[in-house]
Design goal:
- This protein has about 350 residues and is of the alpha+beta class.
- The strands form two sheets. Strands 1, 2, 3, 4, 5, 6, 7, 8 and 18 form a nine-stranded mixed sheet that branches. Strands 9, 10, 11, 12, 13, 14, 15, 16 and 17 form a nine-stranded mixed sheet that branches.
- A hairpin with a 3-residue loop joins β2 and β3.
- α6 crosses α8.
- The radius of gyration is 21 Å and the shape is globular.
């Protein structure tokens, strides 16, 4: 399907040196609109630009929006590679349904993304450990203060060349157990990529930073007993030859990297268990040495080893406080597949 493409007449200067995360944006963006009775229309690729919206637009007041996050990688032969993109758009469709956003054609959106990547191909970094972050988003665009599902939407995709998510790269992070605030609850929007989940977590993140931590560990919203996520990542615990991760409960995001880690660990011979994991179990397991590794998984950081956990009763050092063998294996294998250095026997990647 041919997409109307308007190329920029004023190309940006590409960033040099440290990229950071989400600081720079490419020359172009993909856009498509929804209007009730007409469906998804006005598909185009155009120069990256500000979006002008009325102050009464629904998304500003009732937060009817969803987003996704995936990456394009510069392969070892210079090709552009995508990793499990179909799973991202499948999850985005599930998130959209939860927020009463109309169904979209994932194949059409994927075609649009492919064309956008071709137009901005030179923005995919060549430097090791860097990539092109892809942010699809849908926002409600009705102008109204009435509380209702919008009848019009804007779906857009923007691209950002990025380096490591955490400034210290793969150095183990320090997490703080959050016992006052909660991220989400079953029946809510915790399983969706919904901006409100992240906005609601900012306060806890700021409190963690004041305590000298990189992020928080979220507990369940009812009993404050069971561990759910680590900041915006899923979390894993290594107990001998077993890898344990909190079971999806309706308040935990079904991470694509989480899914990938489970598959790789099973193939490596680990027993992988998805179940409730209590704070008491983790505290005692770390103290006794039964739990040898803790790490987070997510698109932005891939694998983030946890060196220290701050609880109300003091600090817990995981193992020797360094990146463990399991986390190292997952990071090297996942990035190896993503960049084309390791054979992809799972069919997770495609080349643009």
């Amino acid at each position: 399907m041919e997409i109307r493409t308007i190329r920029t007449q004023m190309p940006k200067q590409k960033p040099m040196g440290e990229l950071g995360f989400g600081k720079y944006f490419t020359d172009h963006m993909y856009m498509i609109e929804y209007r009730e009775g007409q469906g998804w229309i006005n598909e185009c690729i155009r120069p990256y630009t500000a979006i002008t919206l009325d102050p009464a637009t629904i998304v500003f007041h009732y937060c009817q929006s969803v987003f996704e996050g995936l990456k394009a990688y510069r392969g070892s032969s210079g090709e552009i590679r995508l990793f499990r993109h179909a799973d991202n758009f499948r999850r985005m469709a599930e998130s959209a349904a939860r927020l009463c956003i109309p169904e979209f054609n994932a194949d059409r959106i994927m075609n649009g993304l492919t064309e956008l990547l071709k137009v901005d191909a030179q923005w995919v970094p060549y430097s090791e450990g860097s990539s092109l972050y892809i942010r699809p988003a849908i926002i409600a665009t009705d102008v109204s203060l009435s509380v209702h599902a919008s009848k019009s939407y804007l779906f857009y995709i923007i691209l950002s060349p990025v380096g490591a998510y955490y400034k210290n790269g793969l150095l183990p992070v320090k997490l703080r157990i959050e016992e006052e605030y909660t991220r989400a609850s079953a029946g809510g929007t915790g399983a969706a990529k919904y901006g409100g989940n992240y906005g609601g977590g900012l306060k806890a993140g700021e409190e963690a930073a004041k305590a000298g931590c990189d992020q928080v560990i979220w507990l369940d919203p009812v009993r404050r007993k069971y561990i759910e996520e680590a900041g915006s990542m899923n979390i894993f615990f290594v107990i001998g030859d077993e890898a344990v991760t909190p079971a999806l409960s309706g308040s935990i995001l079904n991470g694509i990297t989480r899914q990938s880690a489970i598959t790789l660990l099973k193939d490596k011979g680990y027993r992988v268990t998805e179940r409730k994991v209590s704070l008491d179990e983790v505290s005692e397991g770390i103290k006794s040495g039964v739990i040898t590794e803790v790490f987070g998984t997510g698109t932005a950081a891939v694998i983030s080893p946890v060196g220290t956990i701050l609880t109300a009763k003091g600090e817990l050092t995981v193992g020797d406080g360094q990146m463990g063998e399991t986390a190292k294996y997952l990071y090297e294998t996942l990035t190896g597949i993503q960049y084309g250095k390791i054979e992809d026997k799972y069919g997770w990647t495609i080349t643009i």
